[in-house]
Amino acid sequence: MKDLDKLKIRDVAAGAVIAVKVAPGSSRDRIVGVLGDCLKIATSAPAEKGRANAAAAKTLARALGVDPRAVELTAGHTSPRKEFLVSGLSGADARELLGSDQGAGRKKHG
């Protein structure tokens, strides 16, 4: 994934906090790439009643290969710019997974 080094990820005691920009109303749920210092996630869910937040958390969990319950929205509940805590994962591991074929939402070819 391009510009992954610019992505804001910080380590905390419980795991890694990742800065995310959520774009609701897309045709499908996917990680678009890095926008500024945020991971941009497009979701088909509308930005109402927390649906886009839940879809973004699920998309992030899938990209990182973690249980969806390990991903928690910690800031930006009503803003497009958010922070998600990924429990049990270091910032370095999160960055590595997002840079892999799995994390970018691409299938591995082999």
Features:
single chain; alpha+beta; Conserved Hypothetical Protein Mth637, Chain: A; about 20% helix; disordered C terminus
Uncertain stretches = 105-110
Share of residues in helices: 10-25%
The main β sheet shows up as:
6 strands, mixed
Mean pLDDT, to the nearest integer, reads 91
Find the structural class using helix and strand composition: alpha+beta
Q: In angstroms, what separates the terminal alpha carbons?
A: 19 Å
Strand fraction equals 25-35%
What is the highest CATH level, the class? Alpha Beta
**SSE pattern, N- to C-terminal:** EEEEHEEH
* Radius of gyration, taken over Cα atoms and rounded to an integer in Å: 13 Å
- Corresponding CATH superfamily: YggU-like
Quick one: overall form?
globular
* Total of domains: 1
Specify the CATH architecture: 2-Layer Sandwich
* Subunit arrangement of the protein: single chain
CATH topology: Conserved Hypothetical Protein Mth637, Chain: A
- DSSP summary, beta strand count: 6
What would your notes on this structure say?
It is a single chain. The protein is α+β, with helices and mostly antiparallel strands and 110 residues long. The chain has helices spanning 51-64, 91-99, and strands spanning 9-12, 15-24, 30-35, 38-43, 71-75, 81-87. It has one domain (4-99): YggU-like (Conserved Hypothetical Protein Mth637, Chain: A, 2-Layer Sandwich). The protein is 21% helix and 35% strand. A hairpin with a 2-residue loop joins strand 3 and strand 4. The longest helix is centred in the middle third of the chain and has 14 residues, at 51-64. The two termini are 19 Å apart. 32% of the residues are buried. The model is unreliable at 105-110 (pLDDT under 50).
